[in-house]
Amino acid sequence: MNLKQSLFIAIALSIICLLSWEIYWRSQGKIPDLDDDKNLWAVQRAKVDNATENDAVLLGSSRVLFDFQLDEWQAETGVRPIQLASAGASPLPIFHDIVNNTNYKGTILVGVTPGLFFSTTYPEASPWKRAQSRVDYFKDRTYAQRLNHWLSLPLQKNFVLVSTSEEGWSDDIDLKSLLNNISISNRTGKPQYPPFNSFAYIEEDRNNPMSEKTATDTVFANSIKTVWKFLIMGNQNPPEREATTNFFLADAKKFMERGGNLILVRCPSSGWIKGGEDKFLSREEFWEPLVNASKAKAYYFEDYDQFKNLICPEDSHLSAKDARFFTTELVRIMKADGALSNSKTN
Amino acid sequence: MLFNSLSFIVFLVIVLALYYSKLFNWTGKKRMLLFASYVFYGLWNPPLVILLWISTGVDWITGKKLSTEENQKKRKLWLLLSMCVNLGFLGFFKYGNFLLENFTHLMNSIGVEYQAQPMDIILPMGISFYTFQTMSYTIDMYLKRTERAKTFLDFALYVTFFPQLVAGPIVRAGDLISQFYEEKRATINQFIWGTFLLTIGLFQKVVLADTLLSDTSDQVFGAKGVLSGLDAWTGTLAFSGQIFFDFAGYSTCAIGIALMLGIILPDNFRYPYAAIGFSDLWRRWHISLSTWLRDYLYIPLGGNKHGVLRMYVALMVTMLLGGLWHGAAWTFVIWGALHGIYLVIERLLRNKIQIKINAINGIFLALLTYTLVNFTWVFFRAREFSTAKNMITSMLFMNGDGEKLLQSFDILKVFVLITLLFICHWVMRNTSMEEVSKKTSPWVLGIVWAVMFFLIAIAQGSGEQFIYFQF
After folding, report:
1. Spatial distance between the Cα atoms of A201 and A208, rounded to a whole number of angstroms
2. Nearest of B460, B212, B207, B168 to residue A148 by alpha carbon
3. CB-based contact B458 A173, cutoff 8 Å
4. What is the DSSP string of A64-92?
């Protein structure tokens, strides 16, 4: 047994294989990308514990994540907001956590995506569980997990081959995802989940612009629309308007009573999704009662001429360019209303 | 800290650099290893290091007293103190809620209205492992089977040595403490072999257990309905592979890391799925636990020295407690009971039927053993009895119209992998990895090594916790 020789062979071959793998995926259009996982979220959540009255926290679902661009917000207000919106999740558990487990009394902007905001208060339901699991992880994460995340960031930023995601996108390139894409027959006879590819690039502070491909490649954008249809048509659970509204109102009251500035925002949607939202989760039945009862400052995109014609490439989120415009304009509107202040000038 | 994490790689590099630097003498190196072991444990939950300190302190004092005390009564009292502290910790942290739940059930069943709030107790990682390890020292001291550790540092390092702290192998004092008395350095070959073992261990954990098998097992055991026989078997086989690769992977990593430091840890697995019969299985599966249970439970209960009936009782009690050691739930007790029953039946049959094992009947008997083991895994993995019942009936093909849950590729993947696992165990059952490696060309070994490393790198995973940490 010549172990030294084996070791040298192993090192040389490993380097060759890993380099080839990296080059291959880059040639397929992959670029190094961070994973919007619970660790990335927890780092931002930790900032709320030390945030001041001048700070702003963004909560909501993926629309807040895509539609609010942090650079533009910062340029307008002088403050870089803390992005805590969580894709596919209800904002209620995270708002509840901040209201009840911190003394924060700055600005909280809550995005109201009707299908998720009013979905449920049942702890085991996906929209709730996705958000709550991040809150729980933030509370329970170990020092080893923090260290792992900190060490993984430079790797994620520089190498495609370590790219993976907690979400489990169809175009992930880790071994498990590649194997999951193999199908030899539909044995269960159940409808198959359509391919759901990642359509944004997230940054370390969770600034999350939509990818250029989604904005410009109609076929690709349509593949995302197919997923929305699959998810929405497959959801048999009716919205829990009263339960969700009441749950939110209790926290909203507590937050505003301690001096917090609460803002509700309905971000743009278009096409088939907007049609469904207008019909089944209408403004009059869902948004208006929430706004009236909460007494929070509220902004509905259709109330503003500059937002009326914004088109979401995949019906639910703004392109990076439109998101920058939306953020700048909406922040200006909010400042004009006194809903937001400019801490620079203050 | 997990072996399959970036922080551990950094940690290990720092430890190795300090260990092989000329900064410290041997005592300094041991202190560094002890400190590193506390960091290794504390990065998970710092306050729980205190439990390690208490356990170490109590058993060090007990060992010291037992080495000089001749009065039998006092010796017993010292042993009792150590048992109470160690088993008290284990009882409180691991079985507190379980005992409370069962007490509540008992009260309610006899008509006494009693409700108790579950206690919010964290299960300290690896408590069962280090408790059993430190108890073995005290018991051996009491029975005068081992020498007292020469220094507190040696003893503390024995209790806390990071490669095997949280999931074994459970090492006896005689096998480990004495290695700390003289300076240890791995030879070049030992160091490289240790690195190779670490790679194999990580490959087993990250690629085979987490990437290829865990999802199928989780999907099947998480199903609410009754499954078809094929799905139930696939899920159970996937779990049998997952738990082997997970646990054997950890042990292999631990042995490899220790070897990189020049410390030799005993084998914990010897190709268990090629076992012929259950006595053979327990000589191959989690060897350090099965020998611990044999030496400190089965033999003190009478072993095979006091008649057949007493032997069977001792066997059953040992396996029931062995089951409970794995987790505070009745499903684990049933798992232990099934193994106990298998062992009893095997001994009964062995008295009546003599079989000369050859290649053909051997592989059949190994397959039979493995099949029966799979029925026990159902109870080990299922969180509720209703799940276990559904799974067992499906595996016996008594649910003809059970739900088809898995896709064809998942089934194919599991069956191919488990078949390879079984063949590999059968081929390797009378040899060792080291022996095979000696006969293998350096090129082939290098290529295999590179493939494993490459697959680990592209599988990476999220650092799923090793299953046995919870025990």
Report:
1. 6
2. B460
3. yes
4. HHHH--HHHHHHHHS-PPEE---TTS-SH
| Alpha carbon distance A217, B136 (integer Å) | 67
List of E strands, A173-217 = none
Over the stretch B274-290, which tens digit does the pLDDT of each residue have? 999 999 999 999 999 99
Tens-place pLDDT, residues A24-71: 999 999 999 999 999 999 999 999 999 999 999 999 999 999 999 999
CA pair distance A109, B96, nearest whole angstrom? 44
Count of domains for chain B: 2
Does some domain include residue B442? Answer: yes
Whether B145 and B253 map to the same domain: the answer is no
Tokens encoding B404: 């088809």
Contacts (Cβ under 8 Å, ≥6 apart) of A93: A128, A131, A132, A135
A185 touching B (Cβ < 8 Å): yes
Same-domain check for residues B87 and B128: yes
Q: How many CA atoms lie within 13 A of B104 on its CB side?
A: 11
pLDDT at site B462: 55
Q: How far apart are CA B420 and CA B433, in angstroms?
A: 16
Q: Which of residues 425-444 of B touch A (CB under 8 A)?
A: 437-438, 440, 442-443
3-state helix, strand, coil in chain A (%, to 5): 55, 5, 40
Instruction: Tell me the CATH class for A32-151+201-337.
Output: alpha beta
For residue B326, indicate whether it is catalytic.
yes
Domain containing B450: what range? 189-276+357-470
- Verify that B156 and B244 share a domain, yes or no: no
How many angstroms separate the CA atoms of B298 and B318, rounded?
6
Which helix or strand (DSSP H or E) is residue A22 part of? helix A3-27
Alpha-carbon gap: A163 to the closest alpha carbon of chain B (Å):
9
Element housing A56 (H / E):
strand A56-59
Are B78 and B127 found together in one domain?
yes
What is the chain B residue with the closest CA to A39?
B462
Residue A296, by phi and psi: left (phi above 0), alpha (psi -120 to 50) or beta? beta
Q: How many whole angstroms separate alpha carbon A131 and alpha carbon A110?
A: 14
Residue range B140-155: mean pLDDT, rounded: 93
- Dihedrals phi, psi of A262, to nearest 5 degrees: -105, 130
Question: How far is C-alpha B215 from the geometric centre of its chain's CA atoms?
Answer: 21
Interface membership of B450 toward A (CB under 8 Å): yes
Q: How far is A236 from chain B (nearest CA, A)?
A: 18
Nearest CB to A5 within list B210, B215, B446? B446
Residue B286 covered by a domain: no
A186 contacts in B (CB within 8 Å)?
407
- What is the residue extent of each domain of chain A? 32-151+201-337
Judge: B407–A10 Cβ closer than 8 Å, yes or no. Answer: no
Cβ contact B458–A2 (<8 Å) = no
ipTM associated with this complex: 0.90
Residue for token pair 């327990």: B282
Query: Are residue B33 and residue B137 in the same domain, yes or no?
Result: yes
B50 CB near a chain A CB, below 8 Å?
A: no
A12 interaction partners in chain B (CB closer than 8 Å): 450
φ and ψ of A150, to 5 deg: -60, -40
| Residue B135, min C-alpha distance to chain A (Å) | 28
Of B155, B182, B209, the domain-final residue: B182
Contact B404 A187 (CB under 8 A): yes
Enter the DSSP assignment of A238: P
What residues does A164 pair with on adjacent strands? Answer: none
Dihedral-angle region of residue A142 (phi above 0 means left; psi in -120 to 50 means alpha; beta otherwise): beta
Same domain as B268, residue B241: yes
**Mean pLDDT, each 10-residue run in order, chain A (346 residues):** 92 97 95 93 97 95 97 95 97 97 96 96 94 96 93 92 89 92 87 91 96 95 95 90 96 96 96 94 95 95 93 96 97 93 58
Clarify whether residues B197 and B63 are in a common domain.
no
